[in-house]
Design a protein that fits this description.
The chain contains 9 helices and 16 strands. By secondary structure, the chain is of the alpha/beta class. It is elongated.
Length: about 400
């Protein structure tokens, strides 16, 4: 069980974690370009006496902490930023124009580095191996998790994997858990309608693909309403058609996404969307081409791990700070790929200060999470290792 010495160590390392976080926040890098971030992470791990290795063209860092034989667990942090122009006004705001850590991955990385320092200082309290996965490209499909797995970086001897994500809907100090499904699987689709264009006044000789697209989007909206009750989302985010108000184009295109928490539901919706698009085009005498592209799978929090850590966290922090999440979210996370390899747990870390108004949401130019939450984040990682590898 984690003792007061470990708690004091986390508090002592907290200023270090803040410094790392602010350095990363000021120097954000987009998916697949996290070279400076990776070199900073590797340098910090070497200062701890560890031997990190680079992967994925030196945008990923993997490091192993061993202490005798025993259970092997993996801890993961994503490192990439977003193409967002920061508007927080913070003294350590992004110095890279048009790029910002608007999803909290700077906190994730700093938290895992802080946890690594705690774990290296407390090796007598656990036995086995801890694999640190500092991962790029969570924000860009097909995702850095899949890249690390394909590169052989994910440990073959791992028995469990843990990760977290900041959540501005939860108060600082809180940990949100949900057994089973939480983050959604993703299936994207793009549709091209081929019509017969011409002058807008010649309605009798043209076949307007824009009108067909409007009908399809309306039908998809109705289907989305039905599927929401089944725990799925269908949304259209892109429409391209035409160039002038009096010219009907020969083609129109639109793209959307399907979010689901069960692969079987995803397969059913794919079939229904395909049928709806095909039927709508045929009824107007037009041709439709639809392409589907699978993105991240739905994640699955192992029930046994979730229950075990729920009990453990309640011993470490105030019971009211351990939040039982009743409903899954529709965000996607490539952490799900690790959970397809071994049992895993992915939790929500509260970053909303006590008595503060709701902050900007994730992916927003004003997003500014509470740094105090990093103490709880480090504790969450260390507790996971202690629960699975702790010396009795």
């Amino acid at each position: 069980m984690i003792d007061n010495k470990t708690i004091r160590a986390i508090k002592g390392i907290y200023p270090y974690a803040v410094k790392i976080r602010r350095t990363l926040h000021a120097r954000p890098e987009l998916s697949g370009r996290e070279h400076q971030t990776a070199f900073l992470v590797a340098a910090e791990l070497r200062k701890m006496g560890l031997k990190p290795r680079f992967y994925l063209h030196k945008t990923a860092v993997v490091c192993r902490i061993d202490r005798d034989s025993g259970t092997t667990v993996a801890l993961r942090a994503d490192m990439d930023a977003l193409p967002v122009e920061e508007k927080t006004g913070l003294p350590f705001a992004s110095r890279n124009p048009g790029i910002m850590h608007a999803c909290g991955h700077d906190l994730h990385t700093a938290i895992l580095l802080g946890a690594a320092r705690v774990l290296t200082q407390s090796r007598t309290q656990w036995r086995g191996s801890v694999i640190l996965l500092f991962q790029p490209s969570e924000e860009m499909e097909p995702g850095g998790a899949l890249g690390l797995i394909n590169a052989g970086a994910f440990p073959a001897d791992a028995t469990a994997v843990f990760g977290l994500h900041v959540n501005p809907e939860l108060r600082t100090g809180a940990i949100g858990l949900r057994e089973g499904s939480d983050f959604a699987g993703v299936l994207n689709f793009s549709v091209t309608i081929h019509g017969h264009g011409g002058h807008a006044a010649a309605a009798q000789v043209i076949a307007n693909p824009i009108t067909c697209v409007a009908e399809m989007i309306s039908l998809l909206s109705k289907l989305a309403g039905q599927k929401k009750r089944e725990g799925a989302v269908i949304a259209v985010g892109v429409v391209h058609a035409g160039s002038r108000s009096n010219i009907i184009p020969d083609r129109a295109e639109f793209c959307g996404t399907i979010r689901f928490h069960s692969k079987s539901v995803g397969r059913i919706i794919r079939k229904e969307v395909n049928g709806l698009i095909t039927s709508a085009a045929k009824s107007r005498g037009l041709k439709a081409a639809i392409e589907f592209s699978a993105s991240y799978p739905p994640n699955w929090n192992d029930p046994s791990l979730t229950g075990r850590m729920r009990t453990y966290y309640r011993r470490l922090i105030a019971p009211g700070k351990v939040v039982e999440r009743r409903a899954p979210v529709y965000y996607a996370e490539d952490f799900a790929y690790y959970q397809e390899k071994v049992p895993g747990l992915y939790v929500h870390l509260g970053v909303l200060p006590a008595h503060a108004a709701r902050p900007a949401t994730l992916h927003n130019a004003h997003f500014s999470p509470d740094e105090n939450a990093m103490k709880t984040g480090m504790l969450a990682h260390v507790a996971f290792v202690d629960a699975l590898c702790g010396v009795p």
